[in-house]
Amino acid sequence: MASRRRGRELEQAILDAAFEEFREAGYAGFTMEGVARRAGTSKPVVYRRWSSRMEILVACIANRLPQAETVPDTASLRGDTVALITLAHRRMQMVGQTAMLGMLTDVSADPEARELLLGRLVNELTNLLERAVYARAVERGELEWEHLTERLRRLPIDLVRNEFIIFGAVSAETVESIVDEVVLPALRARGASV
């Protein structure tokens, strides 16, 4: 007899199932029943952890974000930024442009869902940029925290996300162009030595 999954193991199995459900069914077809079935558990077990499909989707997407320690330390702000947005783009590709567009379309009519989804994910990505890229640049003396406005804190991710949503795949050349033609000049204009 197989042992029952509990705690973190069960939660990860549910998040993995939610990711597959979202990728295959899109936002419109995403259901808690489908997640429970894929995870081999029951709907009440899923609902005990997340009270709505939007909450589980946000948790699922956040769970798929790169971790700060997975972003290579290239010894430069430019290199670290390219590395991070390349990783972020790969994660976006895993979700898929169509699924992301569907989700954004559906949440646009629901202010609470929009704030939950976009607010939490923007915060997660901004925190990731700060830990994996900006903190290293500050330590190296390339940047000071005062150089970063709220918009500049999230600019690299905003640009690659918008590029992906509009055009689909984002080439390595486009990633470098985002960094070299927009991000670094904006930071230099604020006094950064990059």
Main beta-sheet annotation: none
Percentage of residues in helical conformation? over 70%
Shape: elongated
The N- and C-terminal alpha carbons lie at a distance of 59 Å
Number of helical elements: 9
- Low-confidence region ranges: none
Strand content: under 5%
H-E string = HHHHHHHHH
* Number of DSSP-assigned strands: 0
How many structural domains in the coordinates?
A: 2
Mean model confidence by pLDDT: 89
Backbone CA Rg:
18 Å
Structural class: mainly alpha
Q: Top keywords for this entry?
A:
194 residues, elongated, mainly alpha, 2 domains, 9 helices, Arc Repressor Mutant, subunit A
Task: Explain what the structure shows.
By secondary structure, the protein is an all-alpha fold. It has 2 domains: 7-59, Homeodomain-like (Arc Repressor Mutant, subunit A); 67-189. Helix content is 75%, strand content 0%. It has 9 helices and no strands. The protein has helices spanning 7-29, 32-39, 43-49, 53-64, 77-95, 97-107, 111-140, 150-167, 172-189. Helix 1 crosses helix 2 (32-39). The chain starts with 6 loop residues before the first helix and ends in a 5-residue tail after the last helix.
